Structures
1.
Amino acid sequence: MKRTVYLTALAALSATAIGTAYAAKAMENDALAIETAKIGLTQAVTAAEQQVGGKASRVEFEKHKGQWVFDVEVVNGKKVMDVKVDSTSGKVIAATEDKADRDDDHDQAD
């Protein structure tokens, strides 16, 4: 009986350790993805601000439709625009008005 409990606990501990190691590696890869960018944050912000005429308030480096982009939130008067900038070429690939999207933490009311 003790041996069965010990083996079960050992198996559960091993599965947890493997899962944690996998999650850490996945996060590490996401963070290191910025190394693939051919442009810097400043260039992405400048491109986004020039495209829609405003000031950047937030930038994220994220995967969009299979490619890494800078997602720049630009404010122009009472309008907020989400501008996607290709991290390789520096070209704006999308600019859409940002309606409060409740799935993003930064758009939720406190």
2.
Amino acid sequence: MDGLLDEPRPGTSRKLSDKDVERVLALTLESTPADATHWSTRSLAKKAGLSRASIHRIWRAFSLAPHRSETFKLSKDPLFIDKVRDIVGLYLAPPDRALVLRVDEKSQIQALDRTAPLLPMRPGQIERRTHDYARHGITSLFAALDTKTGKVIGQTQQRHRSEEFRRFLDTIEANVPADLDVHLILDNYGTHKAALIRNWMAKRHRFHLHFTPTSASWLNLVERWFAALTEKQLRRGVHRSTKELKEAITAFINNHNKDPKPFVWHKTADQILNSVARFCMRTLETGH
């Protein structure tokens, strides 16, 4: 055992002491510079008397990123717990002989055309487009995402009032077999609760509405499908008229429905509520 010794290793010995690391962490987490809202490696290096590389290594070791900031929103719905359990229950254990649809509208979709032709991608150069654009009208998309299959029922409308939503409900009714109940997961937009919609629902007992908590649109998975539509079709698309825009949206829906893949929900209601409770405690501990 006396012969088991370390051989000399390459590299220089550590120059930062534990006190240096502790001082950098304290400055990062407990203070701000006089002329800014957050530290940069340059400003903190000057304050701490260290190099920018040392500050960067410490931040990376402790997963600190003062230059980044994210947003959050906590629901204040008094029925938050009940609504979470209701909707998550539909995701994890949908009722028999019923169809669960996540429904929402993506409004004010703009038909945008660039002021100059796109410069296509080529070796050594990414695609380029002008920063400005010309508007050619807007449209709204109503969509219903099938929880089980991932298929989408979509319909474009010029506006997104209760009249248009009622017409979309007619489309859903025509596409769902008459022997199945229909559970619709919706947000709290006023269009979904108008008298016209309530009267329509009163005549169709197989339709059941489930509203997400206020400020909790993340519970409605059709929002994730809207994000895919924006990323794959709308953000970089060029549409010279609302007609072209509607055709592009319809083509995207048709291609999606050829090989749909459902979004799988994993977290239980208890896991979600426990996570929200921990986050609430963290916000209370900040003292703000």
3.
Amino acid sequence: MLWDPATGPTQVKAAEAAAQRLRLQLQALEARGPDDLEAAVRAATRQRAGALLVLGSPVFNSFWRRIAELTNKNRLPTIMPFTGFAEDGGLMAYGPHLHSLFSQAGAMLVKVLKGSPPSDLPVERPTTFSLTVNLRTAKALGVAMPQSLLARADKIIQ
């Protein structure tokens, strides 16, 4: 799991809890900026990671092409939260659907503009998620994608 400590421990704790339930071994690799990405991917490769989960981070979201290049070069199947990662060559992306998030934000803005104090508005979590699978990358990495996963995908890149 690749994480940016600047984002706080919440995502890491959730990933650790999920890994424990699934009986998966999980190791956290830190990257605080783009200069740390190559070393983190090399560390995952050295430790013979079976796959890499990239947690959400402004740093990672700005450099998903670089992450895709590094993980593909090192033959490391990788999933990241945003669709652009898979569109730019990464194996998979699963996370909040960005257009839905923008719609939710717009609805909140309308409430504020109509006079609701922002402090009275509830925190809203994403309600729509998107799964994108890049079959070209899967083939290059030698990863067989289960038909059940492909059936659930919102977008498949041939």
